């Protein structure tokens, strides 16, 4: 137990590998896996690549080939073995920084060793046993994997808990995986039995070779845990191993080892021991001894069932052991449901006002069938769908290329499988720990075939331009982790229990079942409590650290690069038939950084191009769900049936927010969970006529004006190079660079559209759902990343509510107003004027609906053309129906907040002038804050021009609403003057007449005037922003991170820390890994600058969630895109009323005062026993936090009568 001295509470923190420069993986708040788990042609990465000027491809391939030829005689990847003591040289350990130690109570006087003589005797054996283990294990290791098929652990199987109905779980597949290794890669401190894959290799086999295989697996995992500095994980792992084997003597020995190492058995340790005794039918005397020890350690037997998590039949085994000693023992009753006490939701959660949950238009049988379809899709891990890209005529060349690719892929599969097995065999042999054989347990979690499938998928998805080494490594590691989680759920019996509960949960939603007055979360919790025995559903999973994902992914990538080869003459028979690698490791320069890429050989790219394959493969979690999502009931359970999903998306590999959520009383999270469930339960369908028109244009060279990207064949052709390369001028090189950049941008946009349209086409005849989760500020997002209602105009236009509602008396009017809102033509006009305008142009609207591509095409000249076209079609159908009020509409109508961030600031500060500018005050016409700022800036410009300022004179006639809008909108969210200048420069560039030589000076001048205008117009906003910024600065300077709790009870922490880079030596190349964790100091600048926008984002998400919950109470369909709320045309008026009521209710709370009190308590309260004087920084912080900005005279209730607050 070498790691024991470090303390049992040591937790491994996630690390984020940052590829500096354009290799960066994602924007803040979005998990990297969202963008990189599905295909290499992701928009984000291609856009990143577009800004690079690469070396010529030929030179890179030649250099890489020369490098590869030097090692061509080596049949396998050869890695230098590194001793444990030498690992510091690799700086690997720097990348794994232990978190804050968990406080562990000291062993008491009546502890294990003093109360039991057997423990004293066993201590004497420890030293000799450890020596014996050291002698035995290396020899066992050398034989562990030879003849893998012969060394499968033929364990005695117990009766299954329950057999699944349909589809059948591939148990043989799972069994193969677990027979290859029963080792656990990861778990989490204080979480029960995270080493689930170790769960019962079952009885210890008598066959010696089997024992050696198991022993070697255990040793590999222990080395892994110790290497990762996780002493408590090693302890739990050992307990599970020996419990699984039913060896009580060994379990007792382990308890004595814990005592000798000053480690006190925790509650989970006793649960494992009692489960072992229940399984081996131990005598009552032995069980009683452990129960007495449990009591003397300060635990109660009821806590075993209240706090521990179980898998399979473990709960029954523990209960059997207890009843052997206490025959009349009864399980503690499930805790009575707690009711949320939030003042904003007291009425909502009151049983007196509870209404029946709305039904879906599906029967129980239909929902059961949909659940089975979803389960089948998730069990397959990936989904292959037809691309919407028009297939070229199948030429003889294409047929030949497809046959050739098929044969090659079969060879590559076999070669990669052989390379993997050789690699595992060599890892099982070394007598010293190296950074590579610590990967061994992780290469045994799945059947070998699955690792090969993952590698083949990466190869098939690789774009001709290649991909960053770091991105591919993380993607490979992540895919292994995702499949491992599914295997754990299959093995633990969790899936059978989820299926059983979901079949009953359907009763809440199905139209042919009795109405029930429960929220989805409440009903699911009720069903779980009634189920009683079986595995726990909240099997918390600890994500593997980034360093591990990178090492595992890099190893798999090395195998792929070495194993996959193609004959050089496959496309040109005149060449020799020497096999050459399909993949090359090359370097390119991005800014000042040298970045490693994996690039396919041009022969492979040509083959793929010739084959013109028309399928796309996605992870199942990238697809919309085919059944209603599993309701969120805790931070670690909800959304997909099998795919692992976090309630809160992580950022920069931090886990602080997850820990905060788990420490938070679950009842405080109920409003947030219920709001996410409500958004996820909205059923959708495809607007097929609009989708077909979009696909036809997509396949006919696209249309940039309509936001449908053209294919690469339409990209500008690079100029013809001069014959002498030495005479290439600077302007010629720049022109070539611009052509490459444009082509990369076009490819990026084209692939993004291809994915969205192909997924939409795949579900064109289906009803589907988008499960939701949130970022660390509480803003909600659909989990499927490509196709969802947060997408662009094209994506939103092809989505309809699956549920239809009659238009009612005002529904058609709302459709017409919505259409005019989408055009952007009448933003300054009253709603009635917009309606009148729609009636005036009815001829154009009907023409657009009837002849979208051949008529007058009025819809094409609008701000949101595709949504406008969809709305034209809906208006046409409704107006032509016999009774428009009875027409059943599935169309979503939107209501947008008017510069929503400034609305929250104005309400917080009761700022009268600010409130009027952003439509919090009733007015006959909508107030446009962007036009007001533009007008103010123009006033400043005129004065400066009169004083003779040259740039002010140049700008005459160029200052418009459009030029300043983006900067005004983002000032509230923390945009700096630097960022604002870039925004304005981009807008000025779009004006053809503006002189290019004045761009920098003009944008610099304008951003200064925009900031001055906002300060003048929103004085209270400025004061609040300054107070938030200064408070965050002082908190961060004291070495703490900024935390707060939203009015709905959601705890929030800003995960910005100073990161440091360390070098990870991964065979093919060294990778720079950035590590940031809670033991390092906060990033003061980020903490300070991000607090105001993050705080406002947390308020707008709170307002949205309140609106969602109260719309549910009113029986509305409701979804949101942040501050844009959607519902049926029939219910727009009701949603508008609810939206205003909840805004007033939210800001009637003492938000800033509560924030001040929370932070004073958290950061400035000193211990009552402490006699030390208050530090100077604490005094400054107390003074700052106590000085809450004063509020103005604005009467918040005026919002209730403001038509244009949301409109």
TrEMBL record:
What's the domain of life for this entry? Eukaryota
Question: Per the UniProt record, which EC number(s) apply here?
Answer: 2.7.7.6
Q: Could you describe the subunit structure of this protein? A: Homodimer. Component of the mitochondrial transcription initiation complex, composed at least of TFB2M, TFAM and POLRMT. In this complex TFAM recruits POLRMT to the promoter whereas TFB2M induces structural changes in POLRMT to enable promoter opening and trapping of the DNA non-template strand. Upon metabolic stress, forms a complex composed of FOXO3, SIRT3 and mitochondrial RNA polymerase POLRMT; the complex is recruited to mtDNA in a SIRT3-dependent manner. Also forms a complex composed of FOXO3, SIRT3, TFAM and POLRMT.
- Biased segments, Basic and acidic residues type: 188-209
Q: Give the reaction(s) catalysed.
A: RNA(n) + a ribonucleoside 5'-triphosphate = RNA(n+1) + diphosphate
Q: Which residues form the signal peptide?
A: none
Q: Where in the cell is it found?
A: Mitochondrion
Mind telling me which GO cellular component terms the entry cites? mitochondrial DNA-directed RNA polymerase complex
Protein name (record): DNA-directed RNA polymerase
Q: Single Gene Ontology BP term?
A: mitochondrial transcription
Keywords of the record, alphabetical order, are: DNA-directed RNA polymerase, Mitochondrion, Nucleotidyltransferase, Transcription, Transferase, Transit peptide
Q: Where is this region: Disordered?
A: 159-212, 707-729
Under the heading InterPro entries, the entry gives:
DNA-dir_Rpol_C_phage-type, DNA-dir_Rpol_phage-type, DNA/RNA_pol_sf, RNA_POL_N_sf, RPOL_N
The keyword Nuclease appears for this protein:
no
Which species does the entry assign this protein to? Answer: Lonchura striata
Which stretches does UniProt call biased (Pro residues)? 708-722
């Amino acid at each position: 137990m070498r790691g024991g001295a470090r303390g049992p509470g040591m937790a491994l923190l996630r690390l984020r590998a940052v590829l500096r420069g354009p290799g960066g993986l994602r924007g803040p708040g979005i998990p990297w896996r969202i963008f990189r788990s599905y295909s290499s042609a992701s928009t984000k990465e291609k856009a990143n690549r577009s800004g690079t000027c690469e070396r010529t491809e030929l030179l890179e391939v030649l250099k890489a080939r020369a490098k590869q030829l030097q090692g061509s005689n080596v049949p396998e990847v050869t890695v230098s073995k590194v001793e444990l003591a030498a690992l510091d040289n690799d700086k690997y350990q720097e990348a794994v920084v232990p978190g804050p130690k968990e406080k562990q109570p000291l062993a008491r006087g009546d502890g294990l060793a003093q109360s039991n003589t057997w423990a004293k005797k066993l201590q004497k054996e420890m030293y000799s046993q450890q020596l014996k283990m050291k002698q035995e294990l290396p020899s066992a290791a050398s034989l562990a994997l030879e003849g893998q098929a012969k060394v499968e652990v033929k364990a005695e199987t117990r009766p299954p808990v329950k057999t699944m109905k349909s589809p059948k779980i591939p148990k043989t597949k799972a069994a193969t995986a677990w027979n290859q290794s029963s080792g656990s890669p990861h778990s989490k401190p204080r979480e029960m039995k995270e080493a689930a894959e170790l769960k019962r290799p079952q009885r210890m086999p008598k066959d010696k070779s089997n024992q050696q295989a198991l022993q070697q697996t255990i040793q590999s995992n222990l080395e892994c845990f110790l290497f990762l500095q996780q002493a408590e994980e090693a302890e739990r792992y050992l307990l599970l191993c020996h419990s699984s084997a039913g060896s009580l003597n060994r379990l007792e020995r382990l308890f004595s080892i814990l005592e000798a190492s000053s480690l006190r058995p925790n509650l989970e340790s006793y649960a494992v021991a009692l489960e072992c005794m229940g399984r081996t039918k131990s005598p009552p005397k032995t069980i009683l001894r452990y129960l007495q020890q449990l009591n003397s350690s300060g635990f109660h037997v009821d806590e075993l069932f209240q706090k521990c998590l179980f898998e399979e039949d473990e709960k029954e085994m523990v209960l059997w052991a207890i009843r052997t000693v206490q025959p009349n023992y009864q399980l503690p009753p499930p805790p009575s449901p707690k009711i949320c006490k939030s003042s904003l939701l007291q009425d909502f959660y009151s049983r007196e006002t509870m209404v029946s949950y709305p039904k879906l238009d599906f029967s129980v049988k239909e929902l059961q069938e949909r659940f089975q379809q979803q389960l089948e899709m998730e069990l397959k891990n990936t989904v292959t769908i037809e691309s919407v890209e028009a297939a070229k005529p199948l030429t003889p060349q294409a047929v030949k290329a497809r046959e050739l690719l098929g044969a090659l892929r079969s060879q590559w599969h076999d070669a990669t499988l052989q390379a993997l097995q050789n690699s595992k065999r060599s890892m099982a042999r070394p007598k010293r720990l190296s950074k590579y054989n610590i990967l061994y347990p992780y290469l045994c979690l799945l059947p070998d075939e699955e690792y090969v499938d993952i590698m083949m998928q990466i190869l098939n998805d690789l774009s001709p331009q290649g991909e960053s080494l770091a991105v591919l490594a993380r993607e490979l590691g992540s895919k292994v982790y995702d499949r491992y989680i599914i295997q754990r759920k299959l093995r633990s019996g969790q899936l059978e229990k989820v299926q059983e509960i979901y079949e009953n949960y359907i009763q809440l939603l199905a139209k042919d079942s009795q109405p029930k007055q429960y929220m989805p979360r409440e009903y699911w919790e009720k069903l779980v409590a009634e189920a009683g025995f079986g595995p726990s559903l909240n099997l918390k999973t600890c994500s593997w650290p980034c360093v591990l994902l990178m090492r595992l992914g890099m190893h798999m990538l090395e195998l792929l690069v070495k194993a996959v080869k193609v004959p050089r003459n496959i496309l040109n028979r005149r060449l020799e038939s020497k096999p050459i690698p399909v993949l090359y490791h090359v370097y390119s320069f991005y800014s000042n950084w040298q970045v490693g890429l994996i690039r396919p050989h041009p022969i492979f790219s040509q083959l793929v191009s010739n084959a013109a394959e028309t399928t796309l493969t996605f992870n199942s979690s990238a697809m919309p769900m085919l059944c209603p999502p599993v309701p969120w009931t805790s931070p670690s359970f909800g959304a997909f049936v099998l795919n692992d999903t976090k309630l809160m998306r992580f950022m920069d590999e931090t886990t602080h927010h997850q820990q905060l959520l788990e420490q938070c009383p679950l009842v405080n999270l109920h409003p947030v969970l219920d709001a996410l469930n409500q958004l996820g339960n909205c059923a959708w369908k495809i607007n097929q006529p609009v989708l077909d028109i979009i696909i036809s244009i997509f396949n006919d060279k696209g249309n940039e004006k309509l936001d449908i990207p053209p294919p690469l064949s339409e990209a500008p052709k690079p100029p013809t190079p001069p014959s002498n390369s030495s005479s290439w001028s600077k302007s010629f090189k720049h022109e070539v660079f611009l052509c490459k950049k444009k082509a990369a941008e076009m490819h990026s946009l084209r692939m993004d559209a291809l994915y969205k349209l192909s997924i939409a086409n795949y579900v064109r005849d289906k009803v589907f759902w988008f499960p939701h989760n949130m970022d660390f500020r509480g803003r909600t997002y659909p989990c499927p990343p490509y196709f969802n209602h947060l997408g662009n105009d094209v994506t939103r236009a092809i989505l309809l509510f699956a549920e239809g509602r009659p238009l009612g008396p005002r529904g058609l009017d709302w459709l017409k107003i919505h259409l005019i809102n989408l055009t952007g033509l009448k933003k300054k006009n009253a709603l009635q004027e917009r309606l009148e305008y729609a009636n005036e142009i009815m001829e154009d609207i009907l023409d657009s609906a009837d002849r979208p591509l051949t008529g007058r095409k009025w819809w094409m000249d609008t701000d949101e053309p595709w949504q406008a076209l969809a709305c034209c079609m809906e208006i046409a159908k409704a107006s032509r129906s016999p009774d428009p009020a009875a027409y059943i509409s599935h169309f979503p109508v939107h209501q947008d907040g008017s510069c929503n961030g400034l609305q929250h600031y104005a309400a917080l500060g009761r700022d009268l002038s600010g409130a009027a500018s952003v439509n919090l005050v009733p007015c006959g016409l909508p107030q446009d804050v962007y036009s007001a700022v533009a007008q103010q800036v123009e006033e400043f410009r005129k004065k400066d021009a009169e004083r003779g300022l040259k740039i002010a004179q140049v700008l005459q006639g160029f200052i418009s609403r459009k030029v300043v809008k983006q900067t005004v909108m983002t000032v509230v969210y923390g945009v700096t003057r630097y960022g604002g200048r870039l925004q304005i420069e981009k807008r000025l560039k779009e004006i053809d007449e503006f002189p290019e030589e004045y761009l920098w000076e003009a944008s610099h001048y304008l951003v200064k005037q925009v900031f001055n205008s906002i300060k003048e117009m929103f004085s209270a906003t400025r004061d609040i922003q300054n107070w938030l910024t200064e408070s965050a600065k002082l908190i961060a300077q004291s070495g703490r991170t900024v935390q707060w709790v939203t009015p709905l009870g959601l705890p929030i922490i800003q995960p910005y820390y100073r990161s440091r880079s360390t070098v990870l030596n991964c065979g093919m190349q060294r990778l720079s890994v950035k590590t940031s964790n809670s033991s390092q100091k906060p990033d003061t600048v980020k903490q300070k600058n991000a607090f105001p926008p993050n705080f406002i984002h947390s308020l707008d998400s709170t307002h949205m969630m309140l609106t969602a919950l109260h719309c549910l109470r009113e029986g509305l369909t409701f979804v949101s895109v942040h501050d844009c709320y959607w519902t049926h045309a029939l219910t727009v008026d009701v949603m508008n009323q609810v939206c205003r009521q909840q805004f007033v209710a939210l800001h009637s709370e003492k938000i800033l005062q509560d924030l001040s009190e929370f932070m004073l308590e958290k950061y400035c309260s000193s211990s009552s026993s402490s006699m030390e004087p208050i530090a100077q920084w604490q005094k400054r912080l107390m003074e700052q936090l106590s000085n809450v900005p004063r509020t103005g005279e604005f009467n918040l209730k005026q919002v209730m009568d403001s038509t244009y607050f949301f409109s």
